[in-house]
Write a structure and sequence with these properties.
The structure is a homodimer.
Chain A lengths: L4 H10 L7 H13 L2 H17 L1 E2 L6 E2 L5 H4 L7 E5 L2 H10 L5 E4 L17 H13 L7 E5 L4 H13 L6 E4 L15 H9 L5
Parallel strand pairs in A: 3-4, 3-5, 5-6
Antiparallel strand pairs in A: 1-2
Chain lengths: ~200, ~200
C-alpha cells in the first residue's frame, strides 16, 4: 500500500511489537524516516546491542549483562526468601517499591493451557533444584517462596500448581495479597476484587 | 533503574518515538530482548535500510525509493491539479480513497508559530516555482490547487496564507470539505464541526 518496499518492511517489523497496530507502526516508520540519521543509527544499534549484551542470569533467570545478576550477587539480600515472578520486568516493579530484600527467581511465563504453555516450558525445575540444594546443604537454605504473579487465571493456576509441587519441601509458601488497590474508591472496585478482598480480610 | 546499560539505552531510544512513553518503551524493549535474534536483526536492519533507501521526491517531496516518485511519473494522472498535503503519509490516506487522480505536493509541515514553523521551513517556494513553470510554459500548466490539510488551527492558518500567496497566479484554489463525517450521528458532533458544516452547506 505504501509502494516503497523498504518502508513497508519497516512497518511490518514494527507492527510485530506488542500493542503496535499497523496504523501506529506506520506513524513510527514515518517518524524514523523523518528523523535525522543519528537517531536511526542509535535506535538500530541499541536493538542489536541489547540482544548481544543482555542474557539471563544462570541462577535466577533475570536479565543481566554480568555473569550473575546484581540481585543474586548482592550480599545485603536475604538468601532464605525467594520471590517468584513471571517476567524480569516484574522485578523492576517490585524493587522500586522497596518491599522485598530477598532473592528472585523468574519463571519466564505462567502456565497457560490456552497458549500451550505448560510447566515444562517454565523455569520450575530450576526452582526445585535450588530448593533441593538448600535442603541438602549445597546452597543456602530457603525458608519461604513468595508467589508474585499477575492477578489473573493463569497466575492463579500457576500458584496452585506450584503450591502442590512444593509440598513436603518444608518451605513456607505465600502469595502477594490481592485486594483493593491503595487510594482507590470502593465504589469502582469490580466484583472479583471485592470478593478476594473480603475473603482475604486481615484481622486488626 | 533497570541497571543494565544496554537495556536502558534501548528504552531511552524507543521512548523518543511518538506516542511511546517510558512504560511502553520498557515493554517493547523487553519484547525485543525476549524475541529471537532473527527478529531483532530484521528490525534493526529495516530501520537502517529505510534511511538509506528512502528519500524525498525532488518534484513533489513525497517519500520514494526511485529517482522520481510513482505519483509524479504516472502517465494516467492529470497534470493540471495539485493536491497539497502536510505529510507524505497523507498521500497514502487520499490514495486509498481513490478520490483524487492528479499530482501531489508535500509541504512537510504546516505553519505553526507556536512550534516556530514558518512558511520558510515548508516546501512553499517549490510549489510556487512549479506553478510559475506552468505559467511560463516550461512545465504542464496547473489549473487547480487543492488544500488537504488537517482540520485544525495550523491547517487553517496555512490555507489562508497560501490562498493569499497564490492570488494572481490564475489558479483555482480549493480546500477539501469540512463537515459531518460519513456514518456519524448528528447528536455527537462537536460545535465547531457543526458550525463549519452549516457554513459550507451544499445546495441540492
Amino acid at each position: 500500500m505504501l509502494h516503497i518496499p523498504a518502508l513497508e518492511k519497516l512497518v511490518h517489523e514494527l507492527s510485530r511489537l506488542p500493542g503496535i497496530g499497523p496504523k501506529t507502526a506506520q506513524r513510527l516508520a514515518y517518524f524514523i524516516l523523518k528523523s535525522n540519521e543519528t537517531y536511526s543509527v542509535q535506535l538500530s544499534e541499541s536493538i542489536r546491542r541489547v540482544q548481544s549484551e543482555v542474557h539471563t542470569c544462570p541462577s535466577c533467570f533475570n536479565y543481566t549483562d554480568r555473569d550473575i545478576c546484581r540481585y543474586c550477587t548482592d550480599p545485603h539480600r536475604h538468601n532464605e526468601t525467594i520471590c517468584l515472578v513471571e517476567e524480569p520486568s516484574d522485578i523492576t516493579r517490585i524493587e522500586s517499591s522497596g518491599a522485598f530484600r530477598g532473592r528472585y527467581h523468574v519463571l519466564h511465563g505462567v502456565i497457560s493451557p490456552l497458549e500451550g504453555i505448560t510447566a515444562k516450558n517454565l523455569k520450575i525445575k530450576e526452582l526445585i533444584d535450588k530448593i533441593d540444594a538448600g535442603i541438602s546443604g549445597d546452597a543456602p537454605a530457603i525458608k519461604e517462596v513468595i508467589f508474585a504473579f499477575d492477578a489473573d487465571l493463569e497466575g492463579d493456576t500457576t500458584s496452585l500448581y506450584l503450591a502442590k509441587i512444593l509440598q513436603g519441601k518444608n518451605v513456607k509458601i505465600s502469595r502477594i495479597a490481592h485486594g483493593i488497590p491503595m487510594g482507590s474508591d470502593i465504589d469502582f472496585i469490580d466484583d472479583r476484587t471485592m470478593n478476594r478482598a473480603m475473603e482475604n480480610r486481615v484481622e486488626l
